[in-house]
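Entry 12.
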Amino acid sequence: MVLLKLTDGVLYQPLANTCQRGARKVRNYGSLVGNSPPLTSPQKQPFSFPSFTKCNLAGRDCETIACDIFGSLLKSQSVFPYFMLVAFEGGSIFRALLLLLSYPVLLVFDYEYRLRVMIFFTFCGLRKKNMASVGRAVLPKFYQENLNLQAYEVFASVGFRVVLTSVPRVMVEHFLKDYMEVGDVLGTELHTVGHYFTGLLSGSGFLVKHNALKKYFGDKRPDIGIGSSSLEDHLFISLCKEAYVVNKEDNKSGTNSAMLRQKQPKPVIFHDGRLAFLPTPSATLAMFLWLPLGIILAILRISIGIILPCKIALFLASLTGVNLSVKGCINPTSSNPKKKGVLYVCTHRTLLDPVFLSMALGKPLTAVTYSLSKMSEIIAPIKTVRLTRDRKQDGETMGKLLSEGDLVVCPEGTTCREPYLLRFSSLFAELADEIVPVAINTNVSMFYGTTASGLKCLDPIFFLMNPGPAYYIEVLGRLPRELTCAGGKSSNEVANYIQRKLADALGFECTSLTRRDKYLMLAGNEGIVPDNKRKKP
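Predicted 3D structure (tokens):
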């Protein structure tokens, strides 16, 4: 009976109502084709509002604005990509595939029933904590990248901001409050049972914007209202003292206007999730079509790196689409007879950084890392050693490895996808005077090869599943002795100098954030995985 009720509420009733409305449209169209006078005279739009570009931004600090996020603050009115992000990152690849397969059916429905079906497929059985993680760590990046720059300038010029939207509130609330400094978010509420969403709406149903606006403000009227060209938006912005619309022409003209980093509401330094693109229907279809070939290609690329020598592996990998760009002095040797090894200090983009550096230099290296999955250890073509986060013990381990040969260290302690460098640990500066900074950056088009809350063992596979994964490596040359601890500098001064030098080489920005900050934001923990198998000395 529950399944029958769900089918009736989610599929049958919307389809029946949509067909009924479609039949009325066809009847009216048929009367027009038959040269008969229309049943009713054409009605003019009940409202006519100016474009938001006409809004004066001066002196708005003490005023109030009300608007929607989709079609107003964002360039596109389409909500499908954001439901797909929740389905893929918060649910599973099978949930995402089901949502994609439902897309042709969604085209038959009007907006309200289309939204109802997407909510059901995306949220039915989804854990509330998974949705909270996606809303906190995945969606903000995509929302911010698709902001309408001109609309945001109007929005940001007003002191108190309220957003009304018919999409589920949980999908937009974190971004709007933490990044856009919105006072209140009014959206559609979802029904839950325990720790799970049921995929149905709460008893209040979809949010009706003009009713919600009246209820929230009461007798007062917001100073500015911004909406799309839809009738529903016209109804709620007509209740504001000043009403403006974002027309399709305005969105088209702003499509190519990229939001400058310095103008963004808040820099997105950390974000999670596997998808590196906005999953529109066509882009998602292309991803699923590529997936089988991508898996085969990733296995082939890994096999090439494990089995073959560096030069042959590089050549064959380039034939499969891997792009490795190397710049700088690639053969620095140690000038200190007491120590054989050179310490390479790298920026950290993926777990494959030491592997690609070893291939670029054409010689074996040893890499130290704080956390490495068993699978990554097995497929790594170079020696890897785990650190314990005990400064004294880790220092002894790295000193011993450095006396045996060249060593690679990533003092950030974790990866960062965006053009920022995290704070460098100063431990490496205390261990070696032969230090070579290496600037590393990556580029992907489909999948990110890092994760904070997912399976780390799949990181190399996801990176190598991209059609053309790219690595950029610049070896900056040995650090002068006077800039090392042997030259009188403190370890913190050395670490900060190398961080700034690497940031300048890559065009990145230095931060004081750490691994702990990243994992607290993205995963809600400190990023430390206890190793119960490790025996205490």
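Annotation: Residues 105 and 478 are 61 Å apart (CA to CA). The chain has two domains: 52-250, 281-523.
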